[in-house]
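## tool: complex_structure
## caller: assistant
## args:
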Amino acid sequence: MNADLVIYDTTLRDGSQSEGVSFSALDKLQIASELDRFGVDYIEGGWPGSNPKDIEFFERAAGLEFQNAKLAAFGSTRRVDSPVRQDINLTRLIETGTPVVTIFGKSWDFHVTDGLCTTLEINLQLIADSVAFLKDHGREVIYDAEHFFDGYLANADYALQTLAAALKAGADSVVLCDTNGGTLPDHLVQIIQAVQNEFAQIRLGIHAHNDSDTAVANSLAAVKAGLRHVQGTINGLGERCGNANLCSVLANLALKTDQRLSPKIRLEKLTYVSRLVSEIANIPHREESPYVGNSAFAHKGGIHVSAIRRNRRMYEHIDPQTVGNHQRVLISDQSGQSNILSKAEQMGIDIKSSKKQVREFLDRLKHLEHLGYQFEGADGSLQVLLKKATGEWQPFFELVSARVTIDKQQQVEPLSEAVLKIRVGGVLEHTAAEGNGPVDALDKALRKALEPFYPSLKKTTLVDYKVRVLNSEAATAAKVRVFIETADEKSIWGTVGVSENIIEASWQALVDSVTYKLMKDTDDF
Amino acid sequence: MNADLVIYDTTLRDGSQSEGVSFSALDKLQIASELDRFGVDYIEGGWPGSNPKDIEFFERAAGLEFQNAKLAAFGSTRRVDSPVRQDINLTRLIETGTPVVTIFGKSWDFHVTDGLCTTLEINLQLIADSVAFLKDHGREVIYDAEHFFDGYLANADYALQTLAAALKAGADSVVLCDTNGGTLPDHLVQIIQAVQNEFAQIRLGIHAHNDSDTAVANSLAAVKAGLRHVQGTINGLGERCGNANLCSVLANLALKTDQRLSPKIRLEKLTYVSRLVSEIANIPHREESPYVGNSAFAHKGGIHVSAIRRNRRMYEHIDPQTVGNHQRVLISDQSGQSNILSKAEQMGIDIKSSKKQVREFLDRLKHLEHLGYQFEGADGSLQVLLKKATGEWQPFFELVSARVTIDKQQQVEPLSEAVLKIRVGGVLEHTAAEGNGPVDALDKALRKALEPFYPSLKKTTLVDYKVRVLNSEAATAAKVRVFIETADEKSIWGTVGVSENIIEASWQALVDSVTYKLMKDTDDF
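## result:
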């Protein structure tokens, strides 16, 4: 009976309620595709009734073919004052065309009388009407019982009646939501058992929030008590303190319980998926995150380090590779070495022959990482560095001077101009360009100066530009890291720059971008 | 029997193992004093055997008079090769002069044979000798059974023998440590019960780590099972994924269980203590932290906001004031009129009287949000906008012109200079400044120009600066959003700017920051 535990991801809907997180429709499409590949059973894509961005997402998602997951649209029971067939939100849910629709309804009498401002009886009718309407349209219907645990404590009979209304109308699953996140595990299990006594043989689920810092434990306790459907978000994104963190829930279930997860789940991609979602949300990935954090298997204390060198089990509760993470020994991190060697091989660069060269290169890399550079996703810069380490390095051009000016008169948008002097071979090139902002001006000037010498640069386009402030508490004097992605007709490469000066950081990344392209053309890799 | 639950804080010792955290002796003294005032029972100050900073801390702490807490020094059982009286670490523990000494010893047979490289029998002797030695010196001795849960699973008999050795030698309390953090609550409770069957009437404690994301739940489960001593750290600081977060443990115990905490605990200071520790550790305070985070009682969705305006219980599991936190209403594209009204009310601005004004303001806000502005966390900018909407708006200064120049010669770091012309009243001010990067130069020039007119600006500091690229696929011509946080002696406010030009976006946020401060001084809110 354990085999049918289903994982329902709501990163794109409830997760997008996180403070500071705002996914575009494109962001959502990218995350949905990754979640599908990762192997979750359901992906809740958004609330088409609440904002136009979600409508756009569902329109575009209709063109995707998922391998593992079913896409769900989310909404609420019908409004008190509109008949079900004329309810705009229910209509929009049908229009999304998703095979699954999830709707939430009220379980807490107080929310019915003081929130919806209607009677308990009418609320039961809202639930029944809405579920039946969606079933009539052939949808799989998941009913989220909002505030179920608080509702049960306030009026157990009524809370159970709301579930009965959804079930009688044909709901395929009923999910018990701890919407305010205030319930502790022991209490939660007691209430679940009471529900199970009332409703046998139905698929019950759990939706936990982390306001008491026990959302993961609550989800595990609910599954142990027999619930077969778990909702949560990647990294525990969500309003206030977030939702149950699916990364922790999944790893715990797979590695520490006898629950059988779907074999589609690719646990070894967990760390990747977790970091990707942070990247797309443009929030720092929490280093101390269980299982997937950069510090999760990092060892600092001297005793720990000498012990794990003898046997890693001593201070590691699991093998980090099972979740796609890796051990870090903070005093001597050797993990990069094999990656570096294989990267060099790919490029046809031979640094293997000289142990000293590899050592020097790794030291340089560590120093740069210490300064804030990050080479995951910046292959272009990494390969430029590698090439420079070989001793065969010849620069394609030299900077003599650069000046960027931003001029603003009163309330109008400022003008940005870059003046650039570079030397290619023996030739001095002095040029200038305007742009949408200083970095754009600099980019345009650099291309203008180089293209006469290197016409292949005309075929490159900058496709992505990202800025991350590294030590934001240093305020306007903070260090920033700039990532640039460039494409030509064959490939895409990333480059990176770090400085207290955003123009300088951007310049470094631009120079690496151009250099990588010219290296690629010359060495033909 | 519940009254004697004791709280043992190890922020200064185990918490200082967090990656990136390094407390000075002075930092530790400040935190210890706050923890004492807050009301914890024990403060573990450090490991005098492991580093000189901790020796300095204990020397200076000897001069403090604690009102509530007992100070504990931490160390390990004696070394295999030194007799107890000559053991340098035990001697140092005695020399600290603390009334309490906590030592850890091995419970896991594998750690004895493969870590200490000694026999199981000798390890029992190490434990007994060390505890007896400390008792002979009149100390209260707390024995931390390292890896107890893993040890129990590997060799239950032996793990229990190690506890017996400590107890027989006179240990006052025995603490079961889940050192690798791999144990889930149900398993943990089973093992605790087995220990309780063996040892009745002794004070047992729990020390949990968060590698499975269940450290808080584990601590609560242990207390529910009858353990009377809980160890943890403020904000869950600690190696890898951290220790049990005492903020969550304490709030849960006090507000959601029938456990009686010591009446000395001042729960209403919880948020303050939590943020202070982050401040001293110089790490960002986690916004989504349960109970104490800046987002813990923040409401974003329009439905939630209109509901909490009627009754805050609807979407808040506790009254935030009980833990010294407060409710926040966020402004976002998902929320409507009710968010604005309640925000204006908080600000003491009356826009309620004019429905047309509210509507116009909301339209303006939605337009700005559509352009990429985001007012969650940018209260300062929102308030400036609100003020402008009232019709009573008078600008504090006007920009005439600004020019920012970044000059770079070859490979050296560029120089940044800002030249600014502004008008205050009838007076024209023309000034210039250099900075670490163009935004810093602009900030410095703006302050230089304004401070003669508005001296209170001298008391403001920029405390945070963030950049987010909004449409990164537009590459270097992408639009960026800049967030700035500014503080004076009383409060912190956020401001926002959006433009394709990062200098322009930063300028907008800087201007709002200064304007908000001057508004605040004038209107005295």
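## assistant note: The mean pLDDT of chain B is 89. The first helix of chain B runs from residue 25 to 38. Handing back to user.
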